[in-house]
Amino acid sequence: MRQLDSTKQDRIEKSMPRGGVSLLNDPALNKGTAFSESERDALGLRGLLPPRIHTMGEQVARVLENLERKTSDLEKYIYLISLQDRNKTLFYRVLLDNIEKLMPLVYTPTVGQACQEYGHIFRRPRGIFISARDKGRVAEVLRNWPFKDIRIIVVTDGERILGLGDLGANGMGIPVGKLALYTACAGIHPTSSLPVTIDVGTENEELRDDPFYIGLKQRRLRGEAYDELIEEFVMAVREVFPAALIQFEDFANSNAFRLLDRYRGRACAFNDDIQGTASVTLAGLISALRITGRALEDQKFLFVGAGEAGLGAGDLLSEALVARGLSMAEARKRAWFFDSKGLIVAGREGLSGHKLLYAHDFDPMQDLPAIVARLRPTGIIGVSGRPGLFDPQVLRTMAEINERPIVFSLSNPTSKTECTAKEAYKWTDGRSIFASGSPFGPVSFGGRTFSPAQGNNVYIFPGVGLGAIACGALHITDEMFLLAARTLAQKVSQADLEEGRVYPPLKKIREVSLAIAVEVAGLAAERGLATREIPGEPGRYIEQLMYDPAYHFDS
């Protein structure tokens, strides 16, 4: 019976026309109702589409109208991802032209909920899933991807998705979302990017008990077996996609730093949670100091949270201070850290790794308001994932000791933020210089309207990636992220600062990404890390590489 069914299916498939229908089902080529009269005739589309031809502008308007009818952000996310599955060109046109409105839907904060419910909203597979069962044949798995000229790979193992913890294979929403932003914000062609999830299990019992969970229902692979799988993956990428940059995303603290240290000198690779977050944070601090009028070396910053984001930012801040003439020891004394056990100080038991670099001589303290009052930081930077940690007492104290306190609440999604924009302005009498990890709308206080900026890594990683791809960089260095931070800060106008923004509006994101790409490519050439010479004027050359989502019609 099975053979008969198979034979019957083969006959049916062979009897079907291969032109029009297959074209309409190809998201990279499909134009929907925008196919011209001549294309409909030439491609066998006549009758398969309604007779009226729509412009892309009309299609965009239809998408936005339908989007507004959705009753929740998650439903809007599903609708947009479904559009990406049907018509990539239209999806990216809509996203690029409406980036400020749609980025919170395509990425943070909505992508967090999408990952939590990924198995329940699953429609079709996206990217490449490499599981622990694929050990020994990872290169074979990668070769199953239909596009061969891959230039950027975003990979996660799903263990630390945003501030939501271990979501296992459900974390695929993160690399998918990041690569959508690479295309929208830096013009990386969608066929040049590949999202990858390495599924080694999950410690999330709720997911393992979920009948719709899409990953391996086992506890996480650890130790040598885990390392061997990651090593095989990196080597397989070098074999199958030798021109690809690897971006590590949302790995747990226990793996993130050591994997970065292991592969940054062996491949073109970086960790966005460590280096991208550090760069966007430093850029925000540089912009904030334009408001206070004080020098970077005169600051004292308290990082609330000592994971990848916080420690990465502390490291890049230290590099920036060394560039301004301080010794590394002096630079690190400008950065203090508070974690779940209290202030990180010399002599505290259990400290290891990067935390030891910031264990200063000070009394052990566990109470955050008391620490702020005694330490007297000029800025507090929240990267803890602990909602409400910047309570009224903390914010009032910051306002008492600083005329313009710097308050960055960078944890995301919104449910994990240390404080909201409204709380920051209210409890500092409207004097705080505020930035957040998740977007907040304008806030009116004291007769002023503030438009706080989102300290999103999207200001950094697309430009860094574009620059590395343009020049064929062998490696990605911390110096590139330091330069990216300075470049981003230069794009903040005086008008932005007066509105309370320490980052430029997202509508300028392609301009920002291009500027960063030019600087990164130039630095790579200076350091002997570029494998391709950029001809002519670098800005013009790189801009011409950027993908513009538009239909191209046959004559």
Structure explained in plain terms:
It is a single chain. By secondary structure, the chain is α/β, with parallel strands linked by helices. The protein has 3 domains: 103 residues, Hemocyanin, N-terminal domain (Up-down Bundle); 159 residues, Rossmann fold (3-Layer(aba) Sandwich), CATH 3.40.50.10380; 184 residues, NAD(P)-binding Rossmann-like Domain (Rossmann fold, 3-Layer(aba) Sandwich), CATH 3.40.50. Helix content is 45%, strand content 10%. The strands form 3 sheets. It has a 7-stranded mixed β-sheet with strand order 8-7-6-9-10-11-14, with helices on both faces. A 5-stranded parallel β-sheet has the order 1-3-2-4-5, with helices on both faces. The protein has a two-stranded antiparallel ribbon with strand order 12-13. Strand 9, helix 18 and strand 10 form a beta-alpha-beta unit. The protein starts with a helix and ends in a 10-residue tail after the last helix.
